Fold each of these.
Amino acid sequence: MHIHILGICGTFMGSLAVLAKELGHRVTGSDANVYPPMSTQLQAQGIELTQGYDPAQLDPAPDLVVIGNALSRGNPAVEHVLNKGLAYVSGPQWLADHVLQGRWVLAVAGTHGKTSSSSMLAWVLEHAGMSPGFLIGGVPQNFGISARLGGTPFFVVEADEYDSAFFDKRSKFVHYRPRTAILNNLEFDHADIFADLAAIERQFHHLVRTIPGDGLIIHPSSESALQRVIQMGCWTPVQTTGAGGQWQASLLSEDGSRFEVSFAGKVEGVVDWQLTGQHNVANALAVLAAARHVGVVPTQGIAALGEFKNAKRRMEKVAEVNGVTIYDDFAHHPTAIATTLDGLRKRIGSAQLIAVVEPRSNSMKLGAHRDGLPESVQQADSVYWYAPANLGWDLAATVASSSVPTQVCDSLEAIIEGVKAQATPGTQVVIMSNGGFGGLHGKLAKALAE
C-alpha cells in the first residue's frame, strides 16, 4: 500500500511514517519545513520527502493520505485530497487501527515531560527484556529511532492532548485506549485550540473514561488539575507519586542526579543517573510505577534508569567549544523553561549560565504564556530572547521586568554576537525552542570556534 503523509516532519507524524514503513507499506511524505532530527531519521529510513504542499505530489494518487494536525482547510494538498475524493485519515486514528489494536498500550500524557518519560519507560521495558514497541515525539538516544513496532504486546506511546486533525478536534490520546496511563502534570497550554484549563481537563477525562477497570492510572499527588480530572469519575485503580503518594523519592544530591525510591513505605533502591532536575525525578517515579504494572520489579527498573540517556533535544549537549558548553532543549512553556534551568543550575553551581529562548509554540505566538516568561529564567545569569518580526506581541515590554540581565534580539546574528562576547571557559549555554531555531546551535558553535 502507498501511504502519503502530509506534515511528515512533525515528531508524531515522522514516527508514524517509521511504523508504516516497518509494516511493509511504501511511505512518502511532505512538509512545509523539513528539518532535523526528524528529516534525518526519515531519510535514513529511505522515506521520500517533498518540501511544500503542491498537489502534484499526490499524482498518481496514493492508496491513503494521513493528514497531520498542522494542516487545515485551504492548504492546497488538503483541498486536492477532498476534491479528488482520496482516502484520508488522521494520524492517531491510523495508529489506533493499524498498530495499537490488541496491544497492551502504556500511554504517557501531561503538559510537560511526555517525551522524556515515554523514552524512559520504553528503555526500562527494553532493559527488562520486554522488547516493547513505541512511538515517541523525539528520538530516544538508547534506541536511536523514534518509533518501532516491537516484538511483544507492550507498546509505549507519547499521548499528546493536542487535536487529531482539522476534521477531528478530539485530543490525539482519546484514540489510544491505554491499559496503563501516566498523567504527568496538567497546566494550561495549546491556547490555539483550548479556551482554558477546564477544556483540557475535559479531554483528559475523556482519556480516563477509556482506561479499563483492570488498568492503572498514575499521577503526582500534588497536581490539583489532575485531581479534578479523577474526581469527574474514575473506574480504574490509581497510584500516586511524590509527597503523600505511594511512590516517593528522597534526593541524595540536590540536582536530582541521585535519589532513593520507595514504594508503599518500602525502600526499593537508589537511582544514580545522567539526568538532573526535580521534574525528571517525578518522571522517574511514574515510569517505575507503570513498569511495575507490566511486571518489571522496581529494582530492575532502577537499574535501567542508571543506563538511560534522554531523548535528543532534551537538555542534549550538542557542542563544547573552547570550554563553553552548548545544550539544545525543547522547553517552550514557562514551567519547562524554569525546571530545565533549575536542574542545570543545581548541577553547575556558580558557573555562568546563559539562556537563549525562542517563543515559538502556537500558545507563545498567541501570547498565552507571556506573563510567566520574566520569572521563568530566574536561574540564568543572562538571557537572550529571540523576537522575530511576526511574533505579534511586544516581547521586549514583557521581559523588561525580569531581574535577570536581558537582551531581546531580532536576528540570530545578534544573539551569536552577544553570547560570543559574554561566554568564557566554563560558561553553559542553553538554547530553548520547540523548532529548528534556524540552526542556531551549529552557527553559535562555529562562531565560538573562530
Amino acid sequence: MTDRQIPRWSELKPLLRPKPLTLDPTERRLSKALTIADLRAIAKRRTPRSVFDYTDGAAEREISLGRARRLFAEMELRPSILRDVSDIDTGTTMLGKRSAQPFAFAPTGFTRMMNHEGESAVVRVADRAGIPYALSTMGTTSIEDVAAAAPNARKWFQLYVWKDRDSGEDLVKRAASAGYEALMLTVDVPVAGARLRDVRNGFTIPPSLTAKTVLDAASHPAWWMNLLTTKPLTFASLSSWDGTVAELLDKLFDPTMTIDDLAWLRSIWSGPLIVKGIQTAEDARRVVDAGADAIVLSNHGGRQLDRAPTPLRILPEVSKAVGDNAEVYLDTGIMSGADIVAALALGADACLVGRAYLYGLMAGGERGVQRSADILSAEIRRTMALLGVRQVSDLNPDHVRLPQ
C-alpha cells in the first residue's frame, strides 16, 4: 500500500513555472513555430488564399514538387557514432567567399505581395545570417533600394532574359553599379508553366478588388490594410499588370534564348555567373563549358515543367559531371535543415531556399524570415552533430541513402 500525503507549498512552488506573458502578437505567433511546416501553417491562416497559393503552389498536378518533398522525406540519414561533435561549423564557401550557412535565400518574384516588408526584410535577415540573397528580376523592390537596405549583405541579382534585350542589359548594369556580387541567369522559363491554382483563383498582380477578394479581406484585414496603405507594388519596368502571372511572363521573357547568349551576358557582366534551372548532367556540362561559375540544379520549385527531374535524385550524377569546374547548388522541395544536409552529402556545394523563408515572411514579416533562418540553421547544426560530422566538408554520400 502506497503512503500518501498532502503536498506542502514548499514542494509545489519549484514545480510552478508559468510561461512569461508575450504581449507582442507577432512574437507570440512565431514562438510557436518549431519547423518550416509550422510557419507554412501560420502563413496560410494570415494570407489571402490567392497569395498563399501563388507561393505554395506549383505547375499542373504539382507532381514535381510532391516528388521532391517525398524524396527528402523518404531518404535515410546514416550516422557515424562516437565522433567528437562538440564544435560544429556550418560554414562553407560560395563563389570564393565564406557563407556562415550552407544555404542562400533564393530569388522570388512579387515578394512585397506576400508581406509589405518584402525584399528589404529578406536581405536584412540574410545580412545578419551571413548568407547571400538573390534579388529577382520580378522583385517588388528596386535593385538600388535592396542594396541600401543592407549595404554589407552579399547580394546576387537574378536575371530573366527579356525580349527587350536593352532592358535586360540595363538591369545588369544597375546591379553592377549597386555592388551586386553575382549574376544568376534563370534558364527554365522559355514560357510560363501552367500554375493552375493561380488560374482558378483568378490571381492577378496586384490582387484585384473583386467580390471574391473583398469577401476574403474580411478574413485577412491586416494583409489588405498593409497592401492598400503602403507603396504600390511595382517591379522591373512595369508599374501594373492586370493579367495572370503566366501571361506576364509570356509577354516579357524571350523564348529564343540559346546557349550562345551566355557570351552576350559575359560581355556585359564581369563577375561570377550562376545559371539556374539545370535539370540534366548534359546541360550542366554545356553551361559550365560556356562559362558558368556555378549552376543551380532546379526545376523551379515544380513551377514550370511538371514531372521534371527531381533535383536531389540526379544530384550525384550532375555533381560528377561538373567536377571541380563549377559549384553546384540545389533547390526545390527543401523544408528542413536535414534536407540541406542531405543535399550537401550527395554533392551539392550549397542550397537555395525560397518557399521556406516566404512562409516566414507571410507569418511575421522580417521577424518571420529570421525565424525561418534560425530554424534551418539549428536543424543543420543538430543534424550534422547527430551524423557525427563537425564541418560541411566532412559530409559525403555514405551519410545518405536514397530510396530506389
Amino acid sequence: MIQKFRWKFIGTSVAALLLVLLITLGGLIGITRIQSQNEVHRVLTALVKNEGHLTPQNAQPAFGDQDNPINRNFLGGKYNPEAVYQYRYFAVTIDASHNVHVVNSTNVYRLKNTTIRAITRKALEEHSQTGNVNIGQNQYAYRVAKDGTGQTIVIFLNETLIFNRFWLLVRVAIVLGICALIVFAVILILVSRKAIKPITDTYHKQQEFITNAGHELKTPLAVISANTEMEEMLGNNSEWNESTKQQVAKLTKLINSLISLARAGETGEITLSKVDFSQIVEETTQDFKSVMKKNNLTYQISIREGIKVIAEKHTLAEILNILLDNARKYCDPGGKVQVKLTKGGALNKSAILRVSNIYKEGKGQDYSHFFDRFYREDESHNSKKGGLGIGLSMARELTEAFRGRISVHHKGDDIVFSVILKIAK
C-alpha cells in the first residue's frame, strides 16, 4: 500500500510538472509562431510598398513608428536597420501581355530567372492574393499587388529562414521538457522514500499495533470462552452463556479479520506464483453448496477451465470466500447466487470472476464506499446480518496485492461483484 501511494505521488507530481511545462513552453512556442507570422506579414508589406526593394531606409515605415510604445513590436524589439539584410526575397512584374519580368533576384541563392518565371505562373494559377510555394528546401510566402504604374507585382519572401527560430525553439522545448521530466522524476524517486518516511513509519506502527493487540486480545477471549464452557459443564447453561459464546465468536472473527487485513497491506508477505484460478473457484464454490442449500438459495456455478493467474492460492481462495459469504448474507430470501469465471478484456488477456446475488434493496444505492473499512450503508439492516464491515475491504486489498481490480454494481435485481486479474502466460 505504501509503495502504491509512493508511486501515485510520483506520478501525480510528474503529471503536474508536465502540465506546467505544456502551458509554459506551449505558450512560448505559440507566441513565437505568431511573432514569426507577423514578421513575414510586415516584410511583405515593406517589399510591396517599395516595389520589391528593401533597404534600411525604406523598410522602417512598414514596421511602424518604433518610438511609439503602442505601435512598437514588443516581442520583436525595437527596429534595427541592419535587420533587413537577413531576408531573402525576389520580385517580378506582370505586363499587359502576361509576360513575367524579374525585378529583383539578387537576394536569393542560385535561383534562375526561368525557375522564377515558372514559380510565378504557378502562383498566379491559384488566383489568390497571398499564398505559399515550395522552392527546393525552402518555402516562400508571396503577395500579389499593384505597383506605382498599375502593373501587377508579385513579391516572394523566404519564410523558412524566418520560421527557423520557431522550429529551433520547438526542438529545444521538447528536449528540455523531456530532460526536465526525467530529472524531476529521478529526484522524486530518490527523495520520495525519505519524504513519505513519517507516513511509512506510522503505517507500520499501525499494522504492528493491530497484530500485537489482536494476539493479546485472543488470550482473554480464550479464557472467557473456556469459563463459559465450564459453566455449561456445571449445568449452568442459560441464554446468557449462549449470548456470551456468540459475542466471543464474533470478536474472535473480527480480530482474525483485522490481523489478516493488516498482513494483507504488507504485500511482501504474499508470495505470488502461477496458480490455477479455475481449480480454486471450483473447490471453493463446492464448499458453499451445503450453506446455500441450508439458506434455501439457488446456487449456479459456471467456470471456464484452464484459467491461470499470478496470485497466491490460499489468499485467492479467501477473496472468493469473502464474496460468497457476502452473497449468502445479503441475498433476498429464496433468491439466487451466481458464480461465473470467464476470460475477457482486450484479447481475452484477463480473468473475470463475477459473484452476484439477488438484492432488490440495492437498487439506487451508492456503491462508491462499499470497500471502505467498517462501511455500512444501513446500520440497522446490516447489523442483523452479522457483518463486521471489514470483509470487502480485505477482498479489495488482497486483490490489489495481485495487481488486480475489484468492483461492484447493481444490474436488474442483482448486485454483482467483479474481480479482474491478468491471465498468466
